[in-house]
Amino acid sequence: MKRLVAIAAAAVVLLSGCGTRASDAEIQAGAGGGPVPLPESVIAELQGALPAAQPGAPVVGLPSGVVPPSALPGGAVPETAPGTSGATGTTDTPAAGAPAAGREPASSAVAPAATCTTKGAPVTIGQVGTYSGVTGAISAPGRTALAVWGQDVNARGGLACHPVTILNRDDGGDPSRSAALVKELVAQHRILALVGSTVAFSAAGFRSAVEAEKIPAIGGELIAPEWHESPWMFPQGASIGDQIIGIIKQGVEAGKKKLAYLYCVEVGACTYADKILKGGGAKRAGAEIVYSSAISITQTDFTAQCQNAKNAGAEQIALGMDGSAMIRLARSCASLGYKPLFSGVGGTISPGQATDTLLRSFNLATATSVAPWLLDDTPGLKKYQAAMKRYAPSLDPDGASISVWTSAALLERAVELGGNGALTTELIVTGLGKLKNETLGGLTGPLTYKPGQAKAPSSGCLFYELLTPQGWTAPRGSKLQCI
């Protein structure tokens, strides 16, 4: 769950008792969680305007992920499918692919393709996110996933028979820069929409720009509350508030009802979690709050928080922090002989950090707004897995990549529903307004948007994952958990 992006440009507020500030290098290096460079030549080949993709060609050599066990510890529900983990970084390279015959509906991974008899003019899609800094390893796979989708959709004939070019931009976690980049993509490159943006730290600036430019932002990391507060932001899954309740509910269902929670001061979603839980969210999940504390994700030590949670009898600690901080928390709690269940939002830990042996020993319960990347048992998941295997076979699927892939599938579905007119931003917005109980082939909970809506509603439906000593598992498979 570390799609919590690079530390915001605003000064970090350190509360009393938070400890000293860790260096960026220390945070980035935690459990091998720093960005893994993806060479420009490789991403250019993946994204470039090639005559055709090269199926099976290696994209970048990364160690393969850990295969989850067939059953979970402690009598949990057996997992239904194996999974993997991986991490990459990307470069800021335009993406374009060569069109081929056939376009497949986004809501079905295996439906017959309709042949494009006439190729349309190229269209451009934008993507803005925080891909650098200490959290780059978390969000970078989503950048690659949109490039994979670009190749895949163009191999199927393009978006409504229009070849797609993708332009992505790194905002460095700065709200002002995020706003400027959105305006640049609209003014200079005439993008039709923004897709799969990762803006947890920069959401305020991002939101202000998409509303000013009247450009739809389709899907993102869904950690920032803004995704469900704007008429121009169209989330591909449940809200951060529902995710927070969902992660705690999974722990409660495992018998861990006494709750402590720690929330960071660097990102709005963390303090929003405090508001949600104290405002009745913990009770909705079936938990009793016994301790809470503000922290900083840059802390080097969490012994005081671990001791307080232990003294309060907490059986579960909900974590409003990134994966590197989770690892340091695990070390602090283990030093006291204290091992509660950890729980956290599904987008704040990198695949590299998920290999940390000590963190795994605590078990980490997560809830995500899109289907587990481990599985391939629905039409939407089959299509995702097939595209990743074909165009990026050495990159293991992960939470960031499936989140962005689902965002792109939402764009495709909106285009299908928009009608037969010219492919424009207006057509996409029209199509979004026609969505009703759309799951995108099992990739997400039921999405419904209405024309002219003031904000997007949350489906309230999630998927569970659990990190165990053996690796990531999906304790409820691809079954939706609606709170």
Automatic annotation (TrEMBL):
Matches recorded under InterPro entries: Leu-bd (IPR028081), Peripla_BP_I (IPR028082)
Keyword Secreted: no
UniProt superkingdom: Bacteria
Signal peptide (from-to): 1-22
UniProt domain Leucine-binding protein: residue ranges: 122-449
Alphabetic keyword roster: Signal
CDD domains for this protein: PBP1_ABC_ligand_binding-like
Span list, region Disordered: 71-106
Biased composition (Low complexity): 78-106
Keyword Signal recorded: yes
SUPFAM superfamilies documented for this protein: Periplasmic binding protein-like I
Family that this chain belongs to: Belongs to the leucine-binding protein family.
Protein name, per record: Leucine-binding protein domain-containing protein
Source organism per UniProt: Sporichthya brevicatena
